[in-house]
Amino acid sequence: MPRVYVIAMQNSVRVAPLIKDLKSQLLEFKVENAIDGKKIDLANSDLWYQKRGTYARLGYQISGPLLGCALSHKSIYSKELEIEDGWILILEEDVRIQPNFRNAVLEVISKLPTSGAIVCQLFTRGERFIQKKSIFEISTGRFLYKFACIPGQTAAYLINRAALKKANLEAKLIGPPDWPNWSHDVTFYGTYPFLVTENDLETTIGSPPISRASYWVRVIQKASLIHFFKFFKTYPSLLAYLKFEIRPLWNHFYWKFRRSPRFPKDARDGLWVI
């Protein structure tokens, strides 16, 4: 079993159900105190994130809680960089693990590639476009697949040493708190059914609302490459820009055009098949 980290705010009561789950399944874990974003002075945080690059990826100025989330994950990446091989597992405080979690995780790991930078999502409610041809059954009723574009959220995931090395090459956060610029060179897998669920508590992070008009202006600027030429210095390359900004747009419109197919078919929390 890989080392398990639980990211939780200090003295948080939200993490209690997850800790109960882990202990009931006799799983060893380490609680990592999350960085309290509300205490971050964004006016003097240039050492932690690149303002222009992060704005280019998000479409708004990052908040303290979002930055705190990113830095909390990054602190674990730095500590685990010295691992010789294998994986680590990161869980955020507001998830619950499924029964027989250990065996399910080990089963997933046994089917993942042994080389390359890889992240495997155990849950996501963000963009979940997946490659139809990549879906394969690893045991009765359990599937593994590749994402068609970088998925959102960092609630629960496996990450290997090669991906950790890439994450640690990025001194500052450039992009969203979940998967910033270093993730363009990582392959994202997922498993279904998800191995964790959310505990129905409201998020402590959140994002500012974006008007429909602002959303469509941003989409048009991306599709026309105006956005790229305005912010090209903040992206690793044109190919990375296409992966971050154009591919999700294409996937979204193509998926809608095909009447929004899901896997499993008609499942409410199903995957969005491309």
Task: Give the helix/strand layout.
Elements: E1 3-8, H1 16-24, E2 30-33, H2 51-58, H3 64-79, E3 87-92, E4 95-97, H4 101-111, E5 118-121, E6 129-130, E7 136-139, E8 142-146, E9 156-160, H5 161-169, E10 187-192, E11 196-198, H6 212-223, H7 226-231, H8 238-257, E12 262-263, E13 271-273
Parallel strand pairs: 1-2, 1-3, 5-10, 6-13
Antiparallel strand pairs: 3-9, 4-11, 5-9, 7-8, 8-10, 12-13
Structural key phrases:
globular; single chain; 274 residues; alpha/beta; eight-stranded mixed β-sheet; 33% helix
- Sequence of secondary-structure elements: EHEHHEEHEEEEEHEEHHHEE
Helix-strand category: alpha/beta
Strand order of the largest sheet: 2-1-3-9-5-10-8-7
Q: Any low-confidence stretches, pLDDT <50, length ≥5? A: none
Structure description:
The protein is α/β, with parallel strands linked by helices. The protein has one domain (3-208, 260-273): Alpha-Beta Complex (Spore Coat Polysaccharide Biosynthesis Protein SpsA, Chain A). It has eight helices and 13 strands. The protein has helices spanning 16-24, 51-58, 64-79, 101-111, 161-169, 212-223, 226-231, 238-257; strands at residues 3-8, 30-33, 87-92, 95-97, 118-121, 129-130, 136-139, 142-146, 156-160, 187-192, 196-198, 262-263, 271-273. The strands form three sheets. The protein has an eight-stranded mixed sheet, sandwiched between helices. Strand 1 (3-8), helix 1 and strand 2 form a beta-alpha-beta unit. The longest helix is centred in the C-terminal third of the chain and has 20 residues, at 238-257. It is globular, with a radius of gyration of 18 Å. The two termini are 32 Å apart.
